[in-house]
Each structure stands twice: as structure tokens, then as C-alpha cells.
Amino acid sequence: MGFQTPQHNITKYLEWTTSGSIQLPDFQRSYRWKDGASGSC
Q1: Whole-number Å distance between alpha carbons of 21 and 15
Q2: Residue 41 pLDDT greater than 60, yes or no
Q3: Which of 10, 33, 34, 35 has the highest Cβ tally under 10 A?
Q4: Given pLDDT bands bounded at 50, 70 and 90, which one contains residue 39?
Q5: Separation of alpha carbons 10 and 16, rounded Å
Q6: Predicted local distance difference test score (pLDDT) of residue 36
Q7: CA dist., res. 13 & res. 24, Å (int)
Q8: Which residues have a Cβ under 8 Å from the Cβ of 8 and sit 6 or more positions away?
Q9: CB of 23 closer than 8 Å to CB of 17
Q10: 13 near 22, Cβ under 8 Å?
């Protein structure tokens, strides 16, 4: 039995974030991408 990541629609993640149901971990909140770096992801 392998691990499976649930595939939810981005709209659902945004709803959960807005309602406070989910949050980014503290270590990810302060991270800032360098200008132009996020486009290569």
C-alpha cells in the first residue's frame, strides 16, 4: 500500500485557506521568492 496525495481543485484549497480550515506552516510564511524565480517552478 503506497502513499497517495489527494488531488483537490485549487478553488477548494482557497476556500479552506480563507475559512481558516488550513494554514501554511510557520516556516513557509516568511519565505520570499527572488524576483522571477517563481516562474520557473
Answers
A1: 8
A2: no
A3: 33
A4: low
A5: 10
A6: 72
A7: 11
A8: none
A9: yes
A10: yes
pLDDT tens, position by position, 1-34: 688 888 999 999 889 989 989 877 766 566 677 7
Question: Cα separations (Å) of 30 from 16, 18, 24, 35?
Answer: 20, 18, 10, 15
23/29 Cα distance (integer angstroms): 9
Alpha carbon distance, N-terminus to C-terminus of the chain: 30
DSSP states along 1-41: ---------HHHHHHHHHHTSS---HHHHT--PPTTTGGG-
